[in-house]
Fold this sequence. Notes:
The complex is a heterodimer.
Chain A: E1 6-17, E2 20-31, E3 35-40, H1 46-53, E4 61-66, E5 69-71, H2 76-82, E6 84-87, H3 99-105, H4 115-128, H5 144-156, E7 162-166, H6 174-189, E8 193-197, H7 201-207, E9 210-215, E10 218-223, H8 230-238, E11 256-265, E12 275-283, E13 287-291, H9 298-306, E14 317-319, E15 322-323, H10 329-334, E16 337-340, H11 355-363, E17 369-370, E18 373-374, H12 376-389, H13 406-418, E19 424-428, H14 436-451, E20 455-459, H15 463-469, E21 472-477, E22 480-481, E23 485-486, H16 492-499, H17 515-518
Parallel strand pairs in A: 3-8, 3-9, 6-7, 7-8, 13-20, 13-21, 16-19, 19-20
Antiparallel strand pairs in A: 1-2, 1-4, 4-5, 9-10, 11-12, 11-14, 14-15, 17-18, 21-22, 21-23
Helix pairs in contact in A: 3-5, 11-12, 11-13, 12-13, 13-14
Chain B: E1 2-7, H1 13-37, H2 42-51, H3 57-82, H4 90-107, H5 116-142, H6 146-166, H7 200-218, H8 220-230, H9 232-238, H10 242-269, H11 280-290, H12 295-319, H13 325-345, E2 346-351, E3 381-384
Antiparallel strand pairs in B: 1-2, 1-3
Amino acid sequence: MSDNGYRLRLIGISKQYPGCLANDAVSLNIKAGTIYALLGENGAGKSTLMKVIYGAVKPDAGEIVWEGKRLTIDSPAAARGLGIGMVFQHFSLFETLTVLENIALGLEPEASADLPALARRIEEVSKKYGMPLEPHRPVHSLSTGERQRVEIVRCLVQDIKLLILDEPTSVLTPQEVDTLFTTLRQLAAEGTSIMFISHKLKEVKALCEFATVLRGGRVSGSCRPKEESTTSMAMMMVGDETPVTHDYEKVIGGEDFLSVQALNLATDDPFGVALNGIDLRVRKGEILGIAGVAGNGQSELLAALSGETLIDNADAIRFPDVALGKLLPHQRREQGLAYVPEDRLGQGAVPDMSLWENGLLTGFLQGLVKKGFLQPAAIQSFTDTIVSRFKVKCASNDCSAKSLSGGNLQKFIIGREVLQNPRCLIAAHPTWGVDIGAAISIHKELIALRDQGCCILIISEDIDELFAISDRLGALFDGQLSPIKNTTETSIEEVGSWMAGVFEDGVEQSADITAGASAA
Amino acid sequence: MKLKLETRGQDSTLIAYLSPAIAAALTLICGSLLFMTLGVDPLQALYTFFIMPVNNLDGLTELGVKATPILLCATGLAVCFRANVWNIGAEGQLLMGALIGSWCALELLDAEGIWVLPLVLLAGAAAGAAWAALPALLKTRFHTNEILTTIMFNYIALNILLYAIHGPLKDPAGFNFPESALFSDWQLLPILVDGTRLHLGAAFALLAVVATWTFLAKTFIGFQISVLGRDARSAHYAGFQQHKLTWLALLLCGGLAGLAGVSEVTGPIGQLVPQVSPGYGYAAIIVAFLGRLHPVGILFASLLMALLYMGGEMVQIEMGLPLALTGLFQGMLLFFLLASDVLITHRVRVTRRAPAGSLEPILMSPTQEHLLPDTQPSSAISQEQN
């Protein structure tokens, strides 16, 4: 049954949150067997709209028509019952359970009763769509890319009619992205509708047949991505006033500022990655970018640099002449280091605390504490500065960190670290989940900081970003660092092969350890 | 009809403050039912329980006497709980304070001078802190769960106290009763209101409230404790030292509990006896949560808890009801508090009966709800109700 041949129609969906109209009379039509893109900046209302479809959010007004019938979707379980599956940006998997157990948990009791049959089905489905999975492997032993497969296969073991993917490629290598796209095209060819949410316009152009663009909760346009340029789509997302691309001048830095020498670090964590002979120098006034698929030692390297993990050999990390290895995070801050961590919530910010408290969290050396006592006026003005200069959208400094959207919180954290005028900034995924406009302003702040003579180390999974702002580039694979080259002298292909463990001497380094490479 | 609990987008501050009042009201209602089943007039029983103990000056000052040790312990516990250090051991720390304070007092029985009392008090506070240091060491050194260790240390402390009172500290001239000698005047806390038992310890408790509030709200270390309690990973990222803060919280709490213990023996009791505490250290846990881990809230909660102790005694004397009522009322209060605290993060929503996932051919109406979480799929618990 269908209504004018549409599988799903959304008519005039509105959703009001306190202080924010997340969706304003949004209408959308989805046909069977077609790949759609939903584009928009952070806070444009994409997630809300998808949660409405997935039954996680109830709209204030509007109609949902599924295969010709008007209905309400009360819960994700109801959505799954209709054949709607969603792959979230953040995986909801139990690490200690196996692939099979994780998938069984998401199913109706009757569907998961026969585990051996389900295991066979998982193997069959995953093989059919080119993303092989071993049902009995515990999830903690899987790479990020494989975990995503679990999430997708979880949707596919049931009869799936609409698959929603929320920024699925942000955790994948370029090669893994290709594999994913092959799978999605195959699914579409078999009649599944696909809704692909992304910031990455190149991918949308490569994959999607139709794109709907949201801006400020409204549909601001729709297009056929293959007939548009990425710039024209970006303009639709951000409006006309914001510049959407920017070229930064590459520079050659001064003397070595931050140096890491023969850093070896075993890991206590059974799921961790040991660092193996990391050598790198970040020069004064330059940005060094480190690429890599998540789970190849980035977390461990970041923790070693920040002081969250202390190093036995204090001299392994020096800045500029001080041995940092045994200094605690706040002592490293006293030396002029600042640090944007990987996780915004629950590392970079305390979810239940207000913005001013989160400003104080690392800003305490900026005159916010005197003789052990807090200085409320100074704390508020420090927070005000972050909020205004980095355009953090929030009702007041008393908002809790968890009430901010991911991109807004990222701006806040970057602002908090940049405003400490560090001599060395270590930043993990500086624009992860941040919209184009904000990403450009963050990049500009980083470049400005560089030009003031700060040395900046950026660890990111976004190759385009690294090429845009880094002066030199390298990649991490399985705890080892590739050679480092000037950005102007390398290519995306070369860095991509470093990320897969192929370093310049042409030797493939234990590529079987991480599925990051095996998916290629 | 269907009642459904769903997460709120933002925690409700209103409910956070209202919840203790809701809990108190529900406790009163259930208390009345309880009295009715016991065959007594609930109004009279409630009057005897809650009003009669405090309807004169004597009663009011006694309330202060009872509230003092609870308040001292609960203030310290609030610091621990804020740091996510689950110290259940205030009782043991209090007993150790009473024991070592008494030992010190008995050693100095013949000494005279204004310095004697401070020394005794200091010994008690130090003993409480030392008793809290053991679980601190175990936790920071061996990752031992402090809930278990502090509970176990409570029993050890109680048995050491009983041993001492039946042995080395027993009054040689005391007809073999398990009691120490009476302390001298130089060792007793001064009385604040003539003709009553309200002693200087109450002033210590109030001072502790003010000092702890300042510490938690105004100092950087207090801030670090809050960060540690709410999100240890952020604390680690910021470079706050978890071990030091854990030590600090436990030592502070132990010191205050020890002071509570020594203030009991040098205050209203005047000697060391086996029944130094009717469970003040445990009651303080309830008080700390009832007071929302806030020193000022704890002040009021400790008065309420003291009233429960006095009311339990009063209904026993006046109406012949069992003393166990005190424990029952404490239990109900904590139970209802925890239950109503769910409403801080969740709301109850009434929905029409509709099996999940049914294809209801209806037009969507603008919903009555303005706040829906966009973080989590809703519906933690749902319950059928007709």
